[in-house]
Amino acid sequence: KKKIAGGNGELIIAGRTRSNDGDVSGNHGDWDFLLLRTDSAGQLLGQWCYGGADAERSNTIKRAATERFIMGGYASSNDGDVSSTNGDLDVWVIEVDDTGSIQWEQSWGGTSMESTEGIDIAADGGIVVPAWSLSGDLDNTCQLGTGDWWLSKLDAAGTLSWRSCVGGTAEEIPYDVVALPDTGFVVAGQTFSADGDVQSHIAWQDAWLVRFDATGNIAWERCVGGSMMEEFHGLEATPDGGYIACGNTSSNDVDVSGNHGGYDGWVAKFGPDALGIARPAVSPASVRFDTWSGLLSIVLPEAERRVGVKLLDAHGRVVSATAFSGREHQLDLGDRASGVYLVRLERSGQVEHHRVLRL
Predict the structure, then answer these.
(1) Of 230, 234, 291, 225, residue with least CA distance to 253
(2) DSSP string over 159-171
(3) Taking Cα atoms as reference points, which of 96, 133, 100 lies closest to residue 117?
(4) Cβ contact 105:79 at 8 Å
(5) DSSP letters spanning 16-31
(6) What's 7's DSSP letter?
(7) pLDDT (tens digit per residue) in 81-123
(8) 302-346, pLDDT tens digit by residue?
(9) Does pLDDT of 347 surpass 90?
(10) Which residues contact 184 (CB under 8 A, 6 or more apart)?
(11) What is d(CA 21, CA 263) in angstroms, rounded to the nearest whole number?
(12) Residues whose CB falls within 8 Å of the CB of residue 107, separated by 6 or more in sequence, listed in order
């Protein structure tokens, strides 16, 4: 989402540049945010560079008000247009007017790396900024795992309203956000976690879609994907009240079908909040692994006609697959290498996961 439509067929395009010649002037050093304005025929009407002596990268742009634009990405400078940074990379958000002049700029982060890939304008005029964060210090005091979704809400003047961390003990990255009329918002990205805020994990790396209320509390979350790797990079609201997300996938099972091989582009359509998002709740199975015998025991609350069982290794690869009927089943893991395994149960229209440690 690096371009938006202006008046009279104009395009407003956000990007980055290291140049300071040809069509580009005003570079501050290394990579800069780059803002371009073209007419309907693609003729350049104006260009502006924003940054400092080190590297900045613009990843997204949104229209904030008439002829005012919000750009977001990261900064590593401490001079020029960048008032300050804390670490290797900080989230950097700026507002510019139609003449390219900065109205305000804000940066935040810890001693490691942070950046935003997508922003949106809330119904109240504020700015929703989902970022990824690898720090757990300075501005980030809520770190949950290796890397989190780090959400910030700014008011229209760029003043911080609130911040929160979302995720589990592994790594999450948010890529896009859609603000909703009720001042809530939906964020799309990816997750490796199977704990914390991630309660619907499927396997390895999942695409992750999360609905938040106006103050950043989770209304619902859903992992989407298969036994391999998925992520959502783009998200749009649809007229029926649902959402459409795009990204990539290397799976060909569970939520994914028709993969052509390797990584494919992937589009997924979701219904409105009340339709098809929350999966029906069933009582979880009991899964126990006995180290001495090497037997994995699965016990259901009641007998079922068919239960699919897949065993995945730490890389998300399916190492065995079977099915059973009834209430109890055992798998012999005696010949399996030591490590963490994921037991995937497909039952009663629901998928559930259990982690086991083979010593």
Answers:
(1) 225
(2) -EEEEEEE--SSB
(3) 133
(4) no
(5) EE---STT-----SSS
(6) G
(7) 999 999 999 999 999 998 999 999 999 999 999 999 999 999 9
(8) 888 778 888 888 777 788 888 888 899 999 998 888 888 889 888
(9) no
(10) 211, 212, 213, 214, 219
(11) 38
(12) 75, 82, 83, 84, 85, 86, 90, 91, 92, 93
Tokens of 167: 């995720």
Assigned token pair, 333: 């893991």
- 8, amino acid identity: N
Which of the two residues, 206 and 344, has the higher pLDDT score?
A: 206
Quick one: pLDDT at residue 50?
98
Q: Are 193 and 145 in contact (CB under 8 A)?
A: yes
Rounded distance between C-alpha atoms, residue 238 and residue 298, angstroms: 41
Which token pair is 259? 């993969």
Q: Which tokens belong to 178?
A: 């859609």
Counting every residue written for the chain, the total comes to 359
State the residue for tokens 């259901």.
Answer: 300
Q: Which two tokens stand for residue 278?
A: 């929350």
Q: Calculate mean pLDDT across residues 169-181.
A: 95
- Count CB-CB contacts under 10 A for residue 253: 18
Cα distance between residue 81 and residue 273, in whole Å: 41
Give phi and psi for 341, each to the nearest 5: -125, 150
Burial of 297 from C-beta contacts in 10 A (0-12 / 13-18 / 19+): middle
Sheet holding 68-75, edge to edge: 56-65, 68-75, 90-97, 102-108
Q: How far apart are CA 212 and CA 346, in angstroms?
A: 28
Instruction: Read off the tokens for 52.
Output: 């400092």
Per-residue pLDDT for 184 more than 80? yes
Please state, in angstroms and rounded to a whole number, the distance separating the CA atoms of residues 106 and 86. Answer: 12
Structure tokens at 175: 């890529």
Which amino acid would we find at residue 237? A
Cα diameter, the chain: 74
pTM above the 0.85 mark? no
